[in-house]
Amino acid sequence: MKLKFALIAGAVALSAVAPSAAQAQMRALSDPVVAHPDPESLFTSRDPKLNRNKQAALHIMRELLQCNQWSRAGEWLTDKYIQHNPLAASGLKGVIEYFVNVAKRTPTEPCTKLTSPIVAVQAEGDYVTVLAVRQMPYADDPSQSYTTTWFDTWRFVDGKADEHWDPATLPTAPAPSASRGGGASPAAYLGTDEDRAAIGKLMWSYDRALDHYDADAYVANFTPDGAFGQTKGHDALRKMITDLVAGQEQRRKDGATIGKMHHFTMNQFLEFTGPTSARYHYYHQTVFGTGGRIGSADAPVMAAAGQGVDDLVKVDGKWYIKYRNVAPTREQE
């Protein structure tokens, strides 16, 4: 106990002198938050009313938030659905509009099992509270993380959620608009440090796999139905890489000199459109060769350059490329 108090006191003293340094160096003192092994078993009660409300909360967690079946939202949310999350507007229509048309959530079928890391479910009167594990990265090392707890509380009327609370806060800086062609902008969602680090690693892995002509590693960065332009699906993407290799081998047989390929991604801007969706804006270059000065025979040769806008999605806790677009139109930018 004395040691823990000393650690806390030291962290507080450090933050008073240099807040940014303290944030970077602090480590969680708490025990890890552990999810229940059978989360769906928590959504039951011997009391008929509490059981009905818990089951409705289960459907919200599973069918809506996990499986994105927002066409069914009216089964478990009232028309007025009052929101107290500062990033979300009230009303059933607004909720559906955001998740379907702005965040572009794709329904998952079938949806038979809740996989969210639930800790506990508590029900009393008209209220149900769901506690869940939330994993957060450390500020100075996003590859390491700690756990804390998120909650969602709903007030139910006749078996449907009529009001909602959670601990969300407004971002510290305004998020840029994600509207397209004058469409509605999503709620300001900046994403977690953990998601930003994961997406950075995804895009690095993409370039490295391509530069090494590793077809299997390349397709692993995409969803099963992911696409590069008009090339869609893992089999087609894999063939795109193997055809590239075959074409270069033939050119070398014909006497061509082909330097090592390098892809450069620059001026990146990551735009979250929701907790599990994002757009990645960037400029790109493809260069062959690494040696020689400009103007010399072995100087690097730029093969392509342009702008890109990729659609990314988070599936089962991991980020993937849904659509890579290296030649967007003005309307797609």
Task: Sum this structure up briefly.
This protein has helices spanning 2-17, 19-25, 48-66, 92-102, 193-211, 215-219, 234-253, and strands spanning 77-83, 118-124, 127-138, 141-157, 160-165, 222-228, 231-232, 261-274, 277-288, 301-315, 318-324. By secondary structure, it is an alpha+beta fold. Strand 8 (261-274) and strand 9 form a beta hairpin.
Give the total of beta strands.
Answer: 11
DSSP strand content: 25-35%
CATH class category label of the largest domain:
Alpha Beta
- CATH topology-level name of the largest domain: Nuclear Transport Factor 2, Chain: A
Overall radius of gyration: 24 Å
Number of helices: 7
What is the architecture of the largest domain at the second tier of CATH?
A: Roll
Spatial order of the strands in the main sheet? 7-6-11-10-9-8
Integer count of domains? 2
- Whole-Å distance between the termini? 55 Å
Contiguous uncertain segments of 5+ residues = 1-24, 173-188
Any idea what the shape is? elongated
**Range of helix content:** 25-40%
Mean pLDDT: 82
Q: Based on helices, strands and strand pairing, what is the structural class?
A: alpha+beta
Secondary-structure element series = HHHEHEEEEHHEEHEEEE
* Main beta sheet strand tally, sense and closure: 6 strands, mixed
Describe the structure.
The relative contact order is 0.10. 29% of the residues lie in helices and 32% in strands. Strand 6 (222-228) and strand 7 form a beta hairpin. The strands form two sheets. A six-stranded mixed sheet has the order 7-6-11-10-9-8, covered by helices on one side. The chain is elongated, with a radius of gyration of 24 Å. It has two domains: 30-165, Roll (Nuclear Transport Factor 2, Chain: A), CATH 3.10.450; 193-332, Nuclear Transport Factor 2, Chain: A (Roll). It has helices at 2-17, 19-25, 48-66, 92-102, 193-211, 215-219, 234-253; strands at 77-83, 118-124, 127-138, 141-157, 160-165, 222-228, 231-232, 261-274, 277-288, 301-315, 318-324. The longest helix has 20 residues, at 234-253. Helix 1 (2-17) runs antiparallel to helix 2 (19-25).
